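Hi everyone,

Forwarding the result from last night's run.
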Amino acid sequence: PDRPTVETASHLDEIRQLIRDGKYGEAAGLVMKLDKQQGRAGHMVWTNPFFPACDLRIRLDGADANAAPPPASYRRSLDYATGVARVQYTDNDTLYQQRAFISRPDNVVVLELTAAGAKKLSGTVAVASHALSDDKDKRMIAQGVEDPNVSADGNWLIFRRAYKGSEGGYEVVARVSAADGRIQADKDALRIEDASKVLVVLRITPLADFQKSAVQKTRKDMENVGADFDAILKRHAAVHGAIYNRQKLDLGGAKARHVPAEELWQQTHEKAATPALLEQVFDAGRYEILCSCGDWPPNLQGIWAGTWDCPWRSDYTLNGNVPAAIGNILNGNMPELMQSVFGYFDGYMDDFRSNAKLHYGARGIFIPSRTSTCGYDVTYNQTYCMTFWTAAAAWYAGFYYDYYLYTGDEKFLAEKALPFMKEAALFYEHFLTKDPNDPSGTYEFNPSYSPENNAANSPSQACINATMDLAACRQLLGNLVTVCTQRGIEAEKVAKWKDMLAHLPKYMVGPEGELKEWCTPKLQDNQQHRHCSHFLGLWYGIDPAIAGDPALLAAAKKAVELRADYRRKSGNVMAFGEMQIGLAAASLGDAENVWGVIERLATHYYYPTFASSHNTGPSIFNADISGGTPAVIVEMLVQSRPGGITLLPALPKQLPAGSITGVPCRGQVTVTNLHWTPDCVDFKLLSAKDQDVTVQLRRGDQLFEAKLSLKAGVEAGHRFGGRAKAAD
């Protein structure tokens, strides 16, 4: 059952003083003491898990495997552009084929089995509980769900299961049809006899109230879906393909594109990245994120929870994994997929307000580090003191604002982005307090937390003035000042936000010349860590406070180098930390470290199927860098701000020629085609409105610049290099 978070607001002064006194562990311990006193667990409580709804089990009759010749000509494939997974093989004189996809417009799983030749399809189709892999699975299922009710009715299979912890549950309805042959109910399965083609259409329906079954409505909807695989696929492919095909990357891997995926993986795994490998991880990642964005965004495993006890409950880990997974949605030309993020947050805004009030006595919103079936902050302990991590709402507000900058959707800005951004800022108006030891009136972020690192001189992850907090708050307030000033609205608030910006702590430089992870001399950086959260001000652009200060800019480059060096020397570190380095390096024009990141990601963090993993090995299936790797690749090729585009800002020398199509830019401009060689760069732009855009390219010591007047809907081309002249 979901319940509100721990109340710490009445002890906030005590917590803050403990932190000012350097008693970071005691401050986090007090939270857990209060947690227990208030009737909560007093220890880490995990989010509700995502898990497999069921297994669709198909058992076909056949000869004794030991007596018959083994199947021949076995082949499996996955078409990213349509989403169709195919398996085919021959058995004596019969060709068997299986095709499957999940339809976006019809919200159904579609599976077709065919037999072409002397033999027909005979066997059973059943919907059953997902197989339990170990004792931990068995404990999870015993705690979470009732035994299912399974029935067969005509050519329908019905699977209903209730939750133990709430009034809800879910239903699975499958319709089985055959072009010929016979289908009959056999207890809780369907028996197929002598069919040349079988179609299974299946839908999973969550129920808020398990007593209110949706089976009859679902059956009616599924009748309207039809029983023709190709007709259902045509509807789906038109939607799926329209999104997937908007962006294409060509790095010169044509000669290896015919190589089967597993063979390409074997040629490159733990070796060197090739153009074909980078194209493959780019395409596979876009496919994975597209497939796992629906009503909700990708969780840790996308939408493919494979067991009852997936790592970290397969939840929404918002302090790094989700931002990585959605990292390519906007610069990858799939903006409609961002609605999955916005829709998910919409449902939990009251929970976020409750968190802010209970933790800090504040108005506005506090988004937790981990969520699944609610927005309450429930997952924390003394080591991972997540109640102190206040940056989430400001960080995600950046995605709301960026969506507006890319799309120009004024209605979204007014009705979604600005309200969310203002509530995030309202929290800081209540949370931020003046440093009592600073006569200039500088604010302090207290308590604070830098996911999931502790300072070199502190045993606790609790802290003060985490650089991530500063960067998130600066980004949020700066964006609000910009957009509200442009529209002449919220004058009093703009003055307030400007004053807050003027009194925020300053970024700091550490003893190694690096951008510090904590903006205080009390805490020393710990470079041996998998997260790089303090690079937030360097992702998808550079915070003006850093960009305008040569010393801070040099410190940012040093910090990137230190974290990259740690990853070069260490082995098994998590993937999205690499992505965090890659985005920062791209913004800084650091092509060498960009190449190091994408090569390490491509050669160490993917399975032979090109699904992505959390650790090297690959180890622990995770969806985050399926979005993160393409995001870094696009950022090394195109960066933008309203009115300005930079081409090839961090192009590695290992990629001297290539092209990319369909790169959207802030300001409603799309780079419809970018092609580069060692001699010249050609590009075409398409704008949604009349506007002037400045395009820049730096190659070595040469700066090329073009100021283009674009007309809405009219593609314009230009070339740098060759006969073109460098700008002064």
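The first strand starts at residue 55 and ends at 60.

Cheers,
N.
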